[in-house]
Structure formats: structure tokens, C-alpha cells
Specification:
single chain; mainly alpha
């Protein structure tokens, strides 16, 4: 990998960091007033409008696909995961949500073994064990009250993992833009169904955060895809680990959220398990 590619990939990852941190704080601010189902609806509505404008300039032919069912299944799983993620960040400290979220590669390895028949080696099994141990340290079942936010965060990690496994299959035939379009379109349909049961308009001071959540959702996917085009997934994943301390700092500065020894130890085990998983991937 050339120095130029490495630099460009790092710059795209900075865009990914900025987008994810913005979406995290936008999600926290929005869900203090607006139900998550309404956030999902408005976020998707704004996102699909942006993507349709881009498609009108670049050509609607890129939206053709022979994998409509696959996109529907993958996008529905991603919708459930995203919904769970927003629920998590509305209930528990931001760093705790992101730490639990980093179990996603571990769940992906298990799902890939069951769904795609990929082999789980001894080292990968160790990574799964350490990742699970990290979760237990963070949530401390039996020693502390299990927070529903932790359950939502775990559900989001598992949902994102299933979505990643299916995305690998879809990208063999369709582009990243096509996959992104059908993801947002599906989320708009599902969000509309949920919104119909408890409609609520955002207040004037919440609207900007809704728009930020929508735009950050699109740019995060785009920046990550561009980074993956320039370098390997291992390099991108290792840089992504920086989101844990960055989110902890954001939680402290914006919401005075503290970090205890259990979160540090659990997050450390989860990140270490991911490093093992990456080296043996």
C-alpha cells in the first residue's frame, strides 16, 4: 500500500470518525425529545431525498438490481440494529454503547460460520470468548442491575453483524451506492409504519439535529466505503477502534459521563479480541 493511499484512507477515516461522532450526539440530543421511531422516519426521508438527487445527476440506471429480496432482508436487519443503537445511546453512557458495539466483528464471525460455512479456528474461537468476557465485565450480570440500554446495545451489535455478513454477498453484484439506496429506502418504509402509530413532529430546536443525523448517516457509510476502496479492512478496523476513547471523551465533555474501571477493562478485552480476530481473518 503506497503512502498516498495510506494518507487518503486515513483522511476518509477521519470523515468516518466525524460522521459517527456527529450521529452519536445527534441521536442523543434528538431522542431526549423525539421517539426513536420518528427519528428513524425523518432520518430516512431526508436521506432518500438526498440520494434521489444524486441519482438524478449520475443516472438512475445504477439503482437496478437483481437482488431486491436480499436488499430487503439486509436492510430490515440494519434498520432493527440502527433502531436498537439509537435506543442504546438514549439510555446509557455513549462510551458503553460503542464498546458493546465493537463486539460486532465477533458476532459476524459466528454468523458467517453458520450462514456462509466459514471455519472458526482456535484463535477465532478465543477471540469470541474474550469478546463475550468483555461484555460480561461491562454489564456485570448478577452484580449490577442490567440496564435495558445495555440490552439494546447488544441487540444492535448482533444486528449490525448480520447486516455486514449479508452485505458481503450483495456487494458481489451491486455497488455501494445501490446498497446504500435500498437500505435507506427500506428504512423509510419501515420507519413510516412505526411512525404511523405515534406521530410526532420535531420541535424547532430538534430539527437541526434530525438533519445532522440524516446527513451523518449517509456520509459515514460513504467515507467508510471510500476508505475500504483504498486499503484493506484490517487497517480500517484498527483505526476504527479509536472511536471508543473518542466517544468516551465526547460523552465526558458533552454530558459529563464518567468512565469506570469495568468499562475500561471490558472495552480493552473487546478490542483485544478484535485484534486477534483481524490477524486470523
Amino acid at each position: 500500500m503506497s503512502q498516498k493511499s495510506l494518507l487518503n484512507a486515513s483522511l476518509w477515516m477521519l470523515g468516518w470518525f466525524a460522521s459517527m461522532l456527529l450521529m452519536t450526539i445527534a441521536g442523543r440530543e434528538t431522542t431526549q425529545e423525539l421517539p426513536v421511531n420518528m427519528l428513524m422516519f425523518f432520518r430516512s426521508a431526508i436521506g432518500i431525498a438526498i440520494l434521489l438527487m444524486i441519482a438524478s445527476l449520475t443516472g438512475f440506471s445504477q439503482l437496478k438490481t437483481t437482488q431486491l429480496t436480499g436488499h430487503g432482508v439486509r436492510s430490515s436487519l440494519h434498520f432493527a440494529a440502527q433502531y436498537s443503537w439509537f435506543m442504546g445511546i438514549s439510555l446509557i453512557p455513549l462510551a458503553q454503547v460503542v464498546s458493546i458495539e465493537f463486539t460486532m466483528p465477533i458476532w459476524a464471525a459466528v454468523i458467517a460460520a453458520l450462514y456462509l460455512g466459514e471455519k472458526i479456528t482456535l484463535m477465532r474461537a478465543l477471540a469470541v470468548f474474550l469478546g463475550f468476557a468483555g461484555i460480561l465485565i461491562i454489564v456485570r450480570p448478577g452484580f449490577a442491575a442490567f440496564n435495558s440500554g445495555q440490552g439494546w446495545a447488544l441487540a444492535s451489535a448482533f444486528g449490525f453483524a448480520a447486516s455486514v455478513v449479508l452485505t458481503k454477498q450483495l456487494l458481489k453484484k451491486d455497488s455501494a451506492f445501490t446498497t446504500l439506496f435500498y437500505m435507506v429506502a427500506t428504512q423509510l418504509v419501515l420507519g413510516s409504519v412505526l411512525a404511523a402509530f405515534s406521530w410526532q413532529w420535531p420541535s424547532a430546536h430538534i430539527w437541526p439535529w434530525v438533519v445532522v443525523a440524516a446527513i451523518a448517516g449517509l456520509t459515514s457509510h460513504y467515507c467508510l466505503a471510500r476508505a475500504l476502496m483504498l486499503t484493506n479492512a484490517s487497517f480500517v478496523a484498527q483505526l476504527d477502534f479509536a472511536r471508543v476513547p473518542l466517544t468516551a471523551i465526547l460523552g465526558y465533555l458533552a454530558y459529563s459521563e464518567g468512565v469506570d474501571i469495568f468499562l475500561v477493562a471490558g472495552a480493552g478485552l473487546i478490542l483485544f479480541s478484535n485484534m486477534i480476530n483481524l490477524k486470523k481473518a
